[in-house]
Description:
Layout (H helix, E strand, L loop, with lengths): L1 E5 L5 E9 L5 E5 L2 E7 L4 H10 L1 H13 L12 E4 L2 E9 L7 E3 L2 E6 L5 H31 L5 E5 L6 E3 L4 E5 L7 H13 L8 H10 L3 H15 L3
Helix pairs in contact: 3-4, 4-5, 4-6
Amino acid sequence: xxxxxxxxxxxxxxxxxxxxxxxxxxxxxxxxxxxxxxxxxxxxxxxxxxxxxxxxxxxxxxxxxxxxxxxxxxxxxxxxxxxxxxxxxxxxxxxxxxxxxxxxxxxxxxxxxxxxxxxxxxxxxxxxxxxxxxxxxxxxxxxxxxxxxxxxxxxxxxxxxxxxxxxxxxxxxxxxxxxxxxxxxxxxxxxxxxxxxxxxxxxxxxxxxxxxxxxxxxxxxxxxxxxxxxxxxxx
Length: 235
């Protein structure tokens, strides 16, 4: 739910509120701005008081995010995309029929009648990414669930803007298709992170011990994924 807070300085701060089963308030700067994770029962008055106390920090982070913002994708011939951590060039051409997306090393080719229609191109390319993500992630889930010694969970593809993955009590794991743009070892980290929730549905020391049992270098991967995040959210 979107909210607007009037700060003491007179400036308006827009944020998205997500209430969760947690004890503390969490502030997260994303590609879409400030996201506040708050306990279910905290009052809006108290919550906004806490946000106001962090106003300087929030504004500094928002400014830094804005300055480092990567230009939006242009769905045109020659645009650079990412796939498994590597750049791929979008190669568009005209054809009387709409052809399937073709991937070759360093290139993603698409031939269609309306190849100059950016919205049509984006729809087709994103559809291809989602399909490839499902195949790629399923293979990784199979490998790491076997290593962890848990039953293979159901995989669902997510389009979330703020989360790379999630796991629920139904033994379902959701993974963000945008991860297909990241280097393979970072995809593996998210897969292992979510699989660990099948044993520990929390972020306790026990949970991180489970993660470490199948992905020892998780701390470095978590840090690296944050650095990659702005690039992965351009698409």
